[in-house]
Amino acid sequence: MDNVIELTRKLVQIPSFPSQENKVSSYIQNIMQDFGFDEVYTDQNGSVVGVMGPKNQEIEILFDGHMDVVPVIGEWKFDPFGGEIFNGRLYGRGTTDMKGGLASAICAISHVAQHHTLKKRVAISASVLEEVIEGFALGHILDIHQPKSVVICEPSKLKLKSAQKGRAEILLTLHGKPAHAANPEVGINPLLIASKALLALENIQLPKDEVLGAAILVPTDIISDPYPSISMIPNAVTIRFDRRILVNETQEIVIEQIKNCLHQADISDFSIQFTQDAIDTFTGQKISPERWLPAWKTKEDSQILEAALQALQEIGLDTEIGAWPFCTNGSESAGKRQIPTIGLGPGAEEDAHTIDESIELSQLTAATEIYAKIIKEICT
Ligand SMILES: [Zn+2]
């Protein structure tokens, strides 16, 4: 289990932006083979799957960790791909989010398989593209394998998460009537309608949840048609919204809320859709998945949650159960497929996507120990 720090360093030293995970993907495939996984393969999207344990058994637990990292921005003191260790922390892009979690799960599975007899199977998915479209890559793996439970290894400071807010991306297009900018009175300016719409939607009433908190609707960009619109009242304006969703919110409900709010503001000429941006995988697949990623809650009496609690207790860590405010691949496993899922991973959420991203070394070794205990409890 002591090689988890070295493995995390190695993974951090291989840049792996979304759609460019090829190098880290082949490195992980080799590592899983070296570590003696019974089955290792790379799927059509480039995600690497490793399975350990007797072939005739079902997969009890699937650990999920994404290989892709967000871009490096700002002035770094540390080399983002150096994997430097300083004062008990490992520095670099992806240390916390989330090559540390991925390395911990790989090391834990191989450790348990080496020292114990697995009676049931355990698997890991090193997934692509999580930073651009949560759940998509894991969905493909879950089409092939049907694990009884899923552990999302995203950073949680090793605190147990049994729920997560979902996420949707919405495009609201407000239609106008084009005209020369010198004669604006001849047209209908969709920018002015957009400003009215934004103000109305800022005060939209959204539901709240005891565990997950409030649903959120926030505009993230706006673009005219045509763009740029020079000397012209544009034909239309499209505003992109990020919508954080709660359990039981459906696409219909979410759209209806917006429609009602706009109608109340006397806006009627608009259209609404969920985003479906085109994305390329490094393997050459062209995909355009809809950004509708449901929220989820896992029952307190599920086996995976109980095993995780027990592991945390044995190590003497906090056993309080919480929720993630951000979206993860759990939206696919739990939100769409109702597979009992927990979130539990090394590193602090606040350190993700930051300048000089880093992770505490002790988080890596503790995560590996906790994962190993969970696997032993359920699979041996
Ligand atoms: Zn992440």
Radius of gyration: 23 Å
CATH architecture call of the largest domain: 3-Layer(aba) Sandwich
Q: What about the largest sheet?
A: 6 strands, mixed
Q: How many structural domains can be distinguished in the coordinates?
A: 2
GO molecular function, one term: metal ion binding
Keywords: Cobalt, Hydrolase, Metal-binding, Zinc
Cofactor: Zn(2+)
Domain Peptidase M20 dimerisation: 163-265
Describe, in plain words, how this protein is organized in 3D.
With 380 residues, the protein is of the alpha+beta class. It folds into 2 domains: 4-164 and 295-379, Aminopeptidase (3-Layer(aba) Sandwich), CATH 3.40.630; 166-280, 2-Layer Sandwich (Alpha-Beta Plaits), CATH 3.30.70.360. The protein has helices spanning 4-12, 22-34, 95-115, 136-144, 190-202, 251-264, 303-315, 330-336, 361-379, and strands spanning 39-42, 48-52, 59-66, 85-86, 89-91, 121-127, 149-152, 160-164, 166-175, 179-180, 208-209, 213-214, 216-225, 232-233, 236-245, 270-274, 279-280, 286-287, 292-293, 296-297, 321-324, 341-343, 358-360. The strands form 7 sheets. It has a 6-stranded mixed beta sheet with strand order 1-2-6-3-7-22, sandwiched between helices. Strands 9, 13, 15, 16 and 19 form a 5-stranded antiparallel beta sheet that branches. Strand 17 and strand 18 form a beta hairpin. The radius of gyration is 23 Å and the shape is elongated. The mean pLDDT is 97. Residues 66, 97-98, 130, 154 line the site of zinc ion. Pfam families: M20_dimer, Peptidase_M20. Keywords: Cobalt, Hydrolase, Metal-binding, Zinc.
